[in-house]
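Researcher: Quick test of sequence recovery. Tokens follow.
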């Protein structure tokens, strides 16, 4: 049976199914808390364990029979690969990637849904940290986010305010029309580039962000900045 999320405070009484895709790699310290917060909203939850070795798999064993779809990669393949696996199991009208940490708040889901209810021409909604509230974002991450956002807007003549946000809500049918190949963190930049190149409409809404650092399990590294630049250039000037 389909499970639905509604935005009752928004200008529509209709309910829509939302699929939450959670790629996981060694997040035993935060996974259970994230799952509890996501489950507070009635949505489809798909968790892809991307070869975890820290006890994450034991936590997922307990969740597998609780209405949560758990898919396992026998070895670590990367966030992009985990997202593609999750997308194959999504049944919702929309899909959203939820990292298995505590940086982003599932309580912001209704804010992400609201623009779709007002305007069916929207293809993607980005949750912008820079329009909302940010806590504990390190200066290098702040600068890298701003530079990548500016570079994307320069390349594609777009007006995105937060390219690297972890909250991007997509129409499922739109994402499935686009061939995705990247296995790492840059899959989201590949997808954004291909959406912009197709002329898809993206809007931003404010969200809340609670940053963490490497010592707390953050996996993005400074080398990903240059990989993201290369990915954006590749899909701006190559065929899709």
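Model:
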């Amino acid at each position: 049976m389909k499970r639905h999320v509604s935005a009752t405070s928004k200008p529509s009484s209709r309910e829509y199914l939302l699929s939450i895709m959670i790629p996981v790699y060694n997040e035993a310290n935060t996974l259970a808390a994230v799952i509890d917060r996501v489950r507070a909203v009635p949505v489809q939850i798909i968790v892809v364990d991307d070869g975890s070795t820290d006890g994450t798999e034991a936590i997922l064993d307990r969740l597998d029979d609780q209405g949560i779809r758990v898919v396992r990669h026998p070895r670590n393949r990367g966030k992009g690969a985990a997202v593609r696996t999750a997308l194959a199991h999504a049944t919702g009208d929309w899909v959203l990637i939820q990292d298995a940490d505590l940086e982003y708040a599932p309580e912001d889901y209704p804010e992400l849904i609201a623009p779709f209810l007002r305007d069916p021409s929207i293809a993607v909604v980005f949750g912008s940290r820079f329009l909302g509230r940010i806590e504990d974002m390190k200066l290098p991450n702040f600068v890298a986010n701003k530079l990548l956002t500016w570079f994307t807007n320069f390349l594609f003549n777009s007006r995105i305010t937060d390219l690297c946000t972890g909250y991007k809500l997509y129409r499922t049918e739109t994402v499935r029309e686009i061939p995705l190949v990247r296995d790492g963190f840059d899959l989201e930049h590949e997808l954004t580039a291909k959406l912009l190149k197709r002329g898809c409409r993206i809007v931003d809404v404010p969200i809340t962000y609670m940053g963490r650092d490497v010592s707390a399990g953050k996996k993005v590294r400074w080398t990903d900045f240059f990989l993201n630049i290369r990915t954006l250039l590749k899909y701006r000037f190559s065929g899709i």
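The first strand starts at residue 18 and ends at 24.
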